[in-house]
Amino acid sequence: MPVALRAAVAAGVVLLALAGCRTRPPVTAVIGPGADAPWPEQQAALGKLDSYALNGRLAVAANGQGFSGSLRFRQQDSRSEMALDGPMGIGGMRVQLDGEELGITSSRGEKLGGNEARAELEQRLGFALPLANLRWWLLGIPAPSAPENGIAPAAQATPPVAFDQDGWHVSVNSRAPGLGFSLPQRLTIEREGARLKLLVEQWQP
Fold first, then answer.
1. Three-state SS letters, the chain
2. Please, which of 24, 169, 184, 192 could form a disulfide with 140 given CB 3.0 to 4.6 Å?
3. In this structure, are residues 143 and 137 in contact, taking their beta carbons and an 8 Å threshold?
4. 149 strand-pairing partners
5. Structural domain for 104, as ranges
6. How far apart are CA 73 and CA 36, in angstroms?
7. What is the rounded distance in angstroms from the CA atom of residue 170 to the CA atom of residue 191?
8. Is residue 93 part of a domain?
9. Residue 16 falls within a domain, yes or no?
């Protein structure tokens, strides 16, 4: 076979391989026991889940005002990272919570920590976000460090539709399979004068 022809055939094979890579569906990670597994088994695994991420859309209402935007959230061990992008001064805000240490980075690169960071976040959102509990509420379960009102989820045979914790009411409006669990797809977190609605578009390990 002539050299030019061999080169053309090889190039065609490479292009086909690349095309196949582009069209191959993404691999979905499975961490949990399965979205159809008994809820007590799922909840036990969720209570130990220390690494996950999600992308979604957020709608916030507080003190008669509101805004919507995108949310990216990542939990890694004790560190929570949240990126909020939207109007009304929220655009580009990055929030990091590691244990009790809170830090905020604005779209202009300005960094705040401690009480200054909490005050800035509360001013932008219109309310104090329950950051310590958020990593658990996003999974559709109460935070294990604080008691919840009503029937404890551990005694339930099915995932909770709603629960109350630390003065907030958390409603799981819909669920969908993700990461080997039945996870919230639409979630509402609210108290008097403040409401946060989340639509999860993608769960990631």
1. CCHHHHHHHHHHHHHHHHHHHHHCCCCCCCCCCCCCCCHHHHHHHHCCCCEEEEEEEEEEEECCEEEEEEEEEEEECCEEEEEEECCCCCCCEEEEEECCEEEEECCCCCEEEHHHHHHHHHHHHCCCCCHHHHHHHCCCCCCCCCCEECCCHHHCCCCCCEEEECCEEEEEEEEEEECCEEEEEEEEEEECCEEEEEEEEEEEC
2. 184
3. yes
4. 164
5. 39-204
6. 25
7. 9
8. yes
9. no
Q: How far apart are alpha carbons 9 and 27 in whole angstroms? A: 30
For residue 95, is it within any domain? yes
> How far, in Å, CA of 42 to CA of 49, rounded?
10
Q: Domain with 143 in it: what CATH number?
A: 2.50.20.10
Q: Confidence band (pLDDT; 50, 70, 90) for 101?
A: very high
Q: Which of 192, 164, 157, 200 is nearest to 37 (CA)?
A: 157
Note whether residue 27 is domain-resident. no
Integer Cα distance of 79 and 122 in angstroms:
20
For the chain, the domain total comes to: 1
For the stretch 139-183, pLDDT in tens is 999 998 655 554 444 457 899 999 999 999 999 999 999 999 999
Q: What is the pTM of this model?
A: 0.81
Query: Do 39 and 19 form a contact (C-beta atoms < 8 A)?
Result: no
